[in-house]
Amino acid sequence: MRTLADAPYLDLASDQVQADPSAIDELRERTWIVRGAIGGVVIGREQVLALLADRRLRSPVTQFIEMQGVTDGLVHDRMCRTPLAIDGEDHTRVRNLVRKAFVPKAIDRHRPLMRTILDALLAPVLPEGRCDFMAAVAEHYPIQVMCEVLGVPTEDHEDFALWIRAISWSLSMQLAAHIDEAEWGMKQLDDYVTGLIAERRGSPGDDLASELVLASEDGDRLSDDELRSLIIGLLFAGYDTTRNQLGLAMWTFAQYPEQWSLLSTRPDLARNAVEELMRFRGTVNTAPRLVAEAFDFEGYRFEAGTLLFLSTSAANHDPATYRQPHDLDISAEREPQLTFGGGPHFCLGVHLARAELQEALTTLAGAMPDLVLDGEPEWRSPMGIFGPETLPIRFRAG
Q: What is the CA angle 393-330-328, rounded to 5?
């Protein structure tokens, strides 16, 4: 039986791998797992899919935070209680209590709101024919949608974006250097969400915050602590991932003008386009997991405490599953992409994220013909949630 030490080494953060995902293909012919800087990296789609559902693996969010010396404080306490971090019966209970609020029927009623928000953001941009897409659209669209869905007043939306950008250091390997900023953002958001929960307990409305406060099953309900961590986790994940995925989508389409043109003439392809873009360039490249108990899997022995990074990016480009995996084709019928994860930690807000991206791409493809880059983007670190910090684009003014 082999151990992780027997696997070949690969630096997933290297410029070569980031610039050309096909660099993994040669290794994939010899192995389904490689050694990374701090653990194993699973690159075979079949194995990624199986391990995403394996109950012997746990979320390592708490370990990532504590290994950077953050063992107390609001960032530690709130992030380590979000659905991203908890496992087992606690995780199942929280998801079961709130799942009805996130089914497609519950989400689809917000699509007109999404279109209204997009129209307002694009109104000053379209006559100019150019913009920094991140500053003009992507920074605002997902947080405004999340806040409106939760029932947060319009005048508070930009505060939420500011606080969540500060909190975003929580799931990075630079948390220790930015802990004061992250703690400040968490304190502001925690205080606001605490007040929001109290208001909805006293006077529920027609919004997601009220649905979560009232959610029950066999008399069981979420405590205020659980609600705070849940809402903070939803805001964090719902803003940062959608912001970056939308930016990546626009950057990718600028490289594939024929696909952008196809979407503008075939808006019915928006659903397929979202899935193909998330397969081709997903903002989340890996699903990190911690081995909770030693086990054997496909010829390898994994000891408790081992970190495994399930590379959804590599899985999404596996030629054993996807024909011409390194080509973008929004009309192709493919096996499901894995960027939303799988198993117990499958993205809780998957239907909301899909709806936001579908509505955005439909609107943008019709409003921004002849899309091209207007300069080089600035990028976030490739480890964690990846995407553009800036994205200068040009298009035919409308």
A: 70
* Nearest of 108, 186, 141 to residue 364 by alpha carbon: 141
Are 88 and 330 a contacting pair, CB within 8 Å? no
283 near 248, Cβ under 8 Å? yes
Taking only the tens place, the pLDDT of each residue in 287-322 is 999 999 999 999 999 999 999 999 999 999 999 999
Residue 328: closest CA among 26, 47, 45, 21: 21
Sign of CA dihedral 77, 221, 156, 367: positive
Predicted confidence (pLDDT) per residue in 157-173, tens digit: 989 989 998 998 888 88
Q: Are 183 and 73 in contact (CB under 8 A)?
A: yes
Number of CB atoms found within 10 A of residue 254's CB:
19
Q: What is the pTM of this model?
A: 0.93
Domain count, the chain: 1
Query: What does the DSSP assignment read for 214-260?
Result: H-EETTEE--HHHHHHHHHHHHHHHHHHHHHHHHHHHHHHHH-HHHH
Cα separations in angstroms, 200 against 34, 97, 204, 350: 49, 17, 4, 25
Give pairs for 348-351: CB < 8 Å, separation 24+.
348/83, 348/95, 348/98, 348/102, 348/234, 348/237, 349/102, 349/234, 349/237, 349/238, 350/102, 351/102, 351/103, 351/104, 351/107
* Better-scored residue on pLDDT, 236 or 86: 86
> Can you give the CATH number for the domain in which 179 is found?
1.10.630.10
From residue 304, how far is each of 68, 317, 347 by CA, in Å?
Answer: 20, 29, 25
Residues 6 or more apart whose CB falls under 8 angstroms from that of 38 comprise 307
φ, ψ of residue 217 to 5 degrees: the values are -150, 115
Check if the beta carbon of residue 280 is closer than 8 Å to that of residue 328: yes
State the residue range of the domain holding 308.
4-394
Q: How far is CA 113 from CA 145, 165, 189, 231, in A?
A: 7, 23, 23, 20
Closest of 258, 252, 246, 273 to residue 370, by C-alpha? 258
Q: What is the dihedral of CA 283, 163, 152, 198, to 10 degrees?
A: 120
> Average pLDDT, whole number, for the chain?
92
Give the lowest-confidence range in 64-73, 78-87, 167-176, 333-342: 167-176
Phi-psi region of 306 (alpha: psi -120 to 50; beta: other; left: phi over 0): beta
